[in-house]
Protein 1
Amino acid sequence: MNAKLTTTPDRRTVLRGGIITAASLPLGVTLASCATGGGGDEETTDGGEEPGGETSADNPFGMAENTTVDAVIFDGGYGVDYVEFAADILAETHEGSSVEVSPSTQIATELQPRFVGGNPPDLVDNSGAGSIGFNAILDQLEDLNDVIDAPNLEGTTIRDTLYDGVLAPSTYGDKLAAINYVLTVYGVWYSSSLFEENGWTPPTTWDEALELGAAAKEQDLYLFGWGTEAATYYQTLAIESAIKEGGDEVRLALENLEADCWSQDAIQGVFAAMKEAVDAGYFKPGGSGTQFTAAQAQWSNTQEFLLYPSGSWIENEMRDQTTEGFEMKGISSMSLTSSPALGADALHSTAGEPFIVPSDGNTAAGKELLRIMLSKESAENFAATKLAPTIVRDTVPADGFGSTALVSQTDLLSAAGESIFTFNFVNTYGMNPEQLPIWNSFLDGSKSVADLTSELQAITDRIREDDTIDKVEVS
Amino acid sequence: MTLSGSVIDGQPPNQTTPTGPVPGPRRGRRRKWTLDRITFFIVFLGLPLALFLIFVINPFIQAGYYSLTNWSGFSPEQEFVGLQNFITLAQDPRFTNAVGNSVVLGLVVPFVTLTIALIFAILITIGGAGRGQIRGVKGAGFYRVVSLFPYVIPGIAIGLIWRLILDPSSGLVNGVLTGLGLDQFESFAWLGNVTTAMPASIFVIVWGFVGFYMLLFIAAIKGIPAETYEAARLDGAGRARMSWSITLPLIRDNVQTAYIYIGIMALDAYVYMQALNPQGGPDSSTLVMSQQLFRTAFTESKFGYASAMGVVIALVTLVFAALVFTVNRLTGGKDDGGAS
């Protein structure tokens, strides 16, 4: 199935991409508090020079003629060619204009001087491990609501073409500070062909997972494995399971950094189940010293372990290192009991790859490129070449371009219906670097559930007590 | 730096004739400001000084100023907060941990590297046969070339290569160890264990630098007149005695300089640590100051706070250099005529 795939992303950029895609989701809810508290949403001026062309249906933002649009795009798991695709359309629809697409893996380091100097790019994909914290630049960004309210190339208002709720995570107060372009589904991924061969069924609860681990062990396989930079994928899995089990209150306690939030029953239940798996030897040893793409290849290529919790970028990320006939599929993360509060099909899904338009740039040009990217044509191109859905609805055909993983994403989304949830506190407060070492030690067996809980709580407590960090009230 | 050979040559150190390009007297009085003289000063003094001020001193001052602000780094706005950043730093367990790790590197890496480099250098220069001409062990030229190989590889590549070699499942090290029947190293995570992560990282850095410092010491030892060794040998000194009583004192200045160079590198160590353990190692046991600084600036958008860390790093480095000078002095460095 993978033979059809066209592009081959560089391995190292992909590696960055993974963690980052994970991290880059709707980053900075942090900023919400700045926008609402500090005031001045209204101050957003409409960019500097607006020599501007006429506004019309074809040119809703009045982009001037003969413009060179300056776009800096994160060159991660998805590459930059999907933006170049939209750039070609822009060059056709605006004769004389063109787009300069600059790939970058270090957005913050490269763009920092440009932001300070007042000449930022017109459009930025602020993603990756080196992305800019939203709280640092929120007041220098355009409100993108007018992009959403503009017609797309096919003439439909863009707002009517998007999945529900995809804009909420990047909306601060009334301001839409970023448009997250790619829809990500989180879950646990496995090889359906391997499972069929062995007569296994993917687990829906942690008890079933442990049984599967025992069955795998008989064949000298492991249930789980991890890589050192991606150990917190298991934290994501644990939080997903706990939120499913305990409902919104579990999520809100974590999001609002409450005291003892990691001691909630649902979370402790999942931690205990994980510890059982660790102690039973169901985790492939050595993960804390293994590079995460190498660890992922132990799953997708040499199939040394069965299940891997991750976001849906995993298929694209491991494209080159997935064995023939793997038939990748995903399930929603295991629940603790058979009747969890949010339902067994509840799903963690959110949009990633935040595109921003800095106010000091040529905002009309940046918005115009973004508008073209949100057209059906560009979105279909993205889905077909990257095997991932964008926030634009109905761009993935029933056969998922031959990708079982993409089909299973669509299935998971429709099965979940309304019970789709997300959480942002880890990224909002930049906790991941500190949590990684803790999870590495927990997964290799050297920390108990009590250690894990108290150390994660200590990070939460420190941030809650630190007055210099803006808190985001989540409800 | 010059070798301290003047005493041996029988010349009082002060009377060495100047060899550098000294502007000789041109027609008339020495102090006259001729065009020639002025252009000379501009080119050889003014230009470097200007570059130094603009690109070295100015950033220092800027960083010093930013360390007193709460600058986020992405907007021109900033507020003066005085020494608040430094007070916070002193109480920040993440940073104090990083300082501790850097200090460990600063103590261990130079000592181990230079000891090994010195031993190799001595073997290659005077470790050979006990009769006839003073020479190194057999095949010295070969060893000399081979041991420089690691230094030719860029640090980042060294880090990435060793990360693969140390990989728990498919790495060379565990492959060899389990091949020898040591089954406890099956899937052993060298870089993922609190007890082994730091030693393994230090090993990689040492591996990368021994060759270069060995070459430096060889050059220094070659500068010692062979007659000195011959005289010592006639007096009955063995190779160990010659190394300890002749070689070491005479290349003392080289060792001191090398110590400071590699010490500064070890206090930074960013490239190696970032390649080997980008997330800071198990329980942050290999997280160094420069990594924490980068994280603070670009991930947490606290440039003012990060600048304060930079100032602390500069201070730690200065203290380190001062310590090396002091130790060298206290152990008799200046008596041997080493100080130039």
Note: The radius of gyration of chain B is 25 Å.
Protein 2
Amino acid sequence: MTVIQNKPDNPIAHLSAEDIETIGRELDAIRERVVASRGERDAAYIRRVISTQRKLEIGSRVVLLFSLFPPAWIVGTAGLTVAKILENMEVGHNVLHGQWDWMRDPKIHSTTWEWDHVSPAEQWKHSHNELHHTYTNVLGKDNDLGYGIMRVDEDQRWHPFHLGQPLWNFINACFFEYGIAAYDLELGRNLRKGRHKKPEFRARARAVGRKIRRQVLKDYIVHPLLSGPSFLHTLAATFTANLLRNLWSHSVIMCGHFPEGVETFSRRSIEGETRGEWYLRQMLGSANISGSRLMHIMTGNLSFQIEHHLFPDLPSNRYQEIAPEVRALFDRYGLKYTTGSLPRQVFSAWKKVVRLSLPNRKAPRRVDDRPAPALAASGV
Amino acid sequence: MTTTVPNPSGKAALRGRILRLAASVTTPLLPDDYLDMVAPLRSGADLRGRILAVRPETADAATLVIRPGRDWRGHTPGQYVRLGVDVDGVRQWRAYSVTSAPARRGAPISVTVKAIPDGVVSNHLVRRTRPGTLVQLDQAQGDFVLPGRPPARVLFVTAGSGVTPVMGMLRAGAPGDADVVVVHSAPTPADVIFGAELRDLAARGAIRLVERHTDTDGLLTVADLDRLVPDHLDRETWACGPLGLLDALEAHWTAAGHGDRLHTERFRPTVISPGEGGTVTFARSGVTVDADGATPLLDAGENAGVLMPSGCRMGICFGCVLPLRQGAVRDLRNGELTTAVPGDGVRIQTCVSAAAGPCDIDH
């Protein structure tokens, strides 16, 4: 079924096709249970997070009006950073996944939400929800694997360009939201193939341009101007908050699919993929971050990347609850539940980025030339 | 002498500029998103109301006293208001008759809710709602109202919670000096919503009250009316209650050639035998669901996470109308089939229409 089956230590060799479908059914049952029990408590949770985020943002922006004074600068910048992280991670990412659509509240709905990010919600939903979540870790299909600028798997062809990828990755981390916007636009590919003159691409590029203008106007002109004599200090504070938010979200996102232990899959492997096989791919293609409750909230519960990838539209506050059950399922079927502390996972992901900036010692396996054993076994 | 009139377009332009500036401060949110946190009932906000009190009326009915937002435009007695209530975290919209008399701007209004068996919203409102709760509101609507010049002889036929719109009219002092008969039907005297108030009105001679208690007297029939109100066909009549009663009254008045004198308010669609259902595609939302022939498309869409426009949910307000690009739907009230082929642009009421085959909805 996968690239991984061609590896010497194929992690799913012990599973029969029937096992895989049973895993799928067990996961479906977990999902059903959560869906049936969604209610008041969950709605109160997201409303509380949104309200906290907004108060924190307003409070920090007010403090920054006086950012001329160093203590105000520090407090305001810290508050704004946290507010922006909350906004992007626990609120924006999750609302845009439709996790809260069941509340039928038009103000907290994936079709109406816009976030504090230069990529317009509409475009991000397409590239992230549709493409990344459908083709998770499929080489050549899931552009999240390296964002089109990095080589993150031995099976990807090496190119001298990759020598610089630790640097590209660091720059991408600093300006992550712009990287995402370019990624959502498929900027590289569209420019290369000369599609940038097509009206469809131009319309999307204009939408990104409008969003960038609004964001930049707010953060780097309007709020600094409102601060009067503190203009430059507020400008620096906002820049710092955006930088820290970008570094943070980049780190969290890297931990989701890059650390050692995460598997990748070949394009062919997903032809005729069953529901059970899809689930299995999500299980092996994602990694968690361990930590405290605060840590989970600050990562938008993407510290439960495995649970999120299995059930992208379940309310984020439930991932922590179902994680032990999911983990027990991994154990029962002898699968590796990849998890670790944030520093460990970030280090692991960076190590891979650095290692793969050089060519492999051995040539990449030409996996697609061989029949995939599990496909044959499962009769697909 | 000439006076300068403030240039309204200049004012509007200034207002527009201020709003744009405010939005550039709060983007991607709107200034409203922040204002809602402190003043949800302010003028210019989405219309909401705050529940001030919940007063029991009978064992299973309660009156909610609601302070509406500043933009509430008032109501005409007999009209209903749609309430959006969060039950178990899910926003549910239902329509209830306004039972208070029209009052000055800013005064509270009241609606009276009867808990119906398995009624998600009605039971929540009657038994679990606490004062202080915010609810979403729409402006009052509906044409179940008295004409500007009240007729000389009026008959109200009500059953159960059907008395609520009529109570709004009676409390407003309507219909003036007319000769008013109220025929009201409820299981027992204790189940009569506003029982004491109705009996008091009767004692003071404002109305003639005919109370029917179905536990002892049986269901009210059209034949009973001949005996209870012999001149009923000569009266301008407003009726509200179960669909069976309304159907019978309509048949009776129409047969007598006085169909135009009967006004009815129907608060729930008649659900006919399920059709065959089908695959429903909400094209712009990119969602496809399998819906059975008994599930309104509105519910099918909402259950699949589509943010559907909705209204009264009973086929009267047309707040949920969406274009059916292609396919067939069945009206749940009368079984009528509506079909559309590309180009037809048929608009359907999603709250009372179910799939009768594959449907492609432009939403």
Note: Chain A touches chain B at residues 38-44, 51, 54-55, 58, 98, 101-107, 109-112, 114-116, 214-215, 217-218, 222-223, 226, 313 (CB under 8 Å).
